[in-house]
Write a structure and sequence with these properties.
This protein is α+β, with helices and mostly antiparallel strands. It contains two helices and five strands. The protein is 36% helix and 30% strand. Strands 1-5-4-3-2 form a five-stranded mixed β-sheet.
Length: 102
């Protein structure tokens, strides 16, 4: 059974920022390739959410490397996958904050 994917407002903003950067500084083709990679990973997570490591035991947050520059942070909540952040790994890791979906 597939888990439903829910995006937090922060994750949606992260995705918009990444796609905007890719379109502006690289090309639409690179942005579309990124979307394809992300969709494939989300499909895998929807099927088997426990395949990626937990990086925060208290919040049960898991990390999936999308590309060498970007990581997806999510948690499983019953039959839902909550995408918390899509973080640019080149940023200061102290900036990484999660907004949990209630």
């Amino acid at each position: 059974m597939l888990n439903e994917i829910i995006w937090s407002p922060l994750a949606k903003k992260d995705l918009d920022n990444i796609l905007g950067y890719l379109n502006k500084n690289w090309s639409n083709k690179i942005a579309l390739n990124f979307i394809d990679i992300l969709e494939d990973l989300l499909w895998q997570i929807a099927i088997n959410p426990k395949q990626f490591p937990i990086i925060n035991e208290n919040l049960k947050v898991r990390k999936c490397v999308v590309t060498k520059h970007n990581s997806l942070y999510y948690k499983q909540n019953n039959d839902r996958i909550e995408v918390l952040r899509l973080f640019d790994n080149r940023q200061d890791p102290d900036k990484l904050r999660f907004s949990l979906i209630l």
